What we know:
About 15% of the residues lie in helices and about 30% in strands. The radius of gyration is 27 Å and the shape is globular. Strands 1, 2, 28, 29, 30, 32, 33, 34, 35, 36 and 37 form an eleven-stranded mixed sheet that branches. By secondary structure, it is α/β, with parallel strands linked by helices. Strand 28 and strand 29 form a beta hairpin.
Amino acid sequence: MRKLSFILFCLISLSASAQMTINVNAKKIGAPVQSTQWGIFFEDINYAADGGLYAELVKNRSFEFPNPFCGWDISGKVTLKDDGLFERNPHYVRLAPSGHSDKHTMIENHGFFGIGVKGGEEYRFSVWARVPDGGSAKLWIDLVDNATMDEDQKLGNVGVDISGKDWQKYTAIIKPKRTFAKAHLRVWGDGKVTTDVEHVSLFPVKTYKGHENGLRMDVAQALEDLHPGVFRFPGGCIVEGTDLETRYQWKHSVGPVENRPLNENRWHYTFTQRYFPDYFQSYGLGFFEYFQLSEEIGAEPLPVLNVGMACQFQNGENAHAACTKEALQQFIDDCIDLIDFANGDPATNQWAKLRADMGHPAPFNLKFLAIGNEQWEKPYFDRLAIIAPEVRKVHPEIKLIGTSGPNAEDDHFHNGWPAMRALKCDLVDEHYYRDIQWYKNWMNRYDDRTFYTKDGPRVFAGEWACHDRGKKYNHAGASIYEAAFMTNIERNADLVHMATYAPLFSHVEGWQWRPDLIWYDNMSTARTASYYVQQLYMLNRGTNVLPTTVAINDGKPSVNPVPKGEDGVFASAVIDKEKNQVIVKVINTLGEAQSAQINIAGMKSKMLPTEAVVTSLDCSDYDAENMPGKPEVVRPTQGKAAVVSAKNASTIAAVIPAKTLQVYCINF
């Protein structure tokens, strides 16, 4: 007989002393769970792109920073030129003989907090170069450990022969002899011949999926292992920019990587207590790469574009921070052209042809587009009212996402939702970075169907994370409340179609915001407790919600016996029609273990199960934190639990440890 599958997700809250029975009615299939329900959001903060996900190891590779030698040491006769072959990156350096045999001309790059290399691995050095006076020259390329006690600082080196007056791209492979997290890259000029060099680059040969302009293997693999349903990019506040001039512009991020212009990162001078004045965007990781990554990790791409306004947080009522309503055509064009870039026919559309020329003739199948980020009130509403109808005229198939502002409960929020309904947005983006008490108070947030109506936009929880007051780091104590809150999202899958935790990445030496889902240094990554919470939900998404009732002590049905703002036990139930599986998730935020009897009724199968696979995430060590060097302090463990089955029903007698998420998987 055909096997059935069920994933259990029924919201429960009960007092510390109560006994709990969860009854699941498998006959009545509820709302579909969207494939996009759980996803990820990329913001270029904390050195998430350059110095993080993007595998380039050289900082300021085209000498385009405001300080052209930022990231570089120079010696000998080095001069900066600005008439190079790349229109948007015209700078290059001239390495000339010093005139003395013991005065060497050289440039040395520090990388991003050093250059991390692994012994025996291959690294691809590339450079655009020429001999301006004609003839030939030789460059020597070294990876070095400046602080070594060895006789020779070199970890590995290679020679590159340069010839002719015309610019050409040269490549060579360097294989360091040992692993080192803080290497530098040296480029030695020819002692007798002047040489010009531009776009000095170093990538590991082993990038994610092997792309030459690729992503760091371990960081990207952590995304694939999540199995997200949607990928929002390229950020939130960086889309706005501190001013419109420095907003993220997707058209600058596509095409040949050598000609993508430098952009100021909105975060590099924001936090004076965590200040990184050398934090810029090379656009090497651009919209083509974001779409490609979405495809390769199996997530729906969700780009965010500017609505014609710079960051309202930074600018307030400053009129210069927004373009006039009459000047919005460029922002309308950006939206329409992006959809064409992603989905268009290369034979008939210039932007689609660019996509094909970059190596992807087939469409990326874009379905969603967000316009604006964390903006509010009339300046935002008026601009979106102009842009959205123009986009719909050309691309009515695309679902448009508006925003309800930066908070989830203030006046901007309550004004934003009616405005988004009036503009007929398909989804509304909500953000809530909040402490534990806020999450305790809002565990039933999406049960309110007076505010969240049956018709109209669906919810996109686009940026959210839990922390404790005074403890804004990735401690396990906060992640268990994230798990509990997610039961409310899951149970209301008819309303909430997307939820993406944020921020996604952080470099341990370059962070400005936390908590974050994945941390890394130059050599390794750490997947946080919050990462494992997200992963368990993504791996066990299900296809439909199942109705569930909860009985406490005397067997009377009860929905929410725990007062608002207190700890308890939370769970939710869905059916998975594809996996033929029952998965029960229960989260105990209390300080002691709780008993729960889970009854699954209404199954039509002769093959009733005798055991369940149980995955547990123990967050009882409140301050536990996974970081590089200690990446598995908190991690899921797996065991088995007995299942007592009779005709059309199965029961699990569960004990949920304190501060623990447990997932019970039952195959039929």
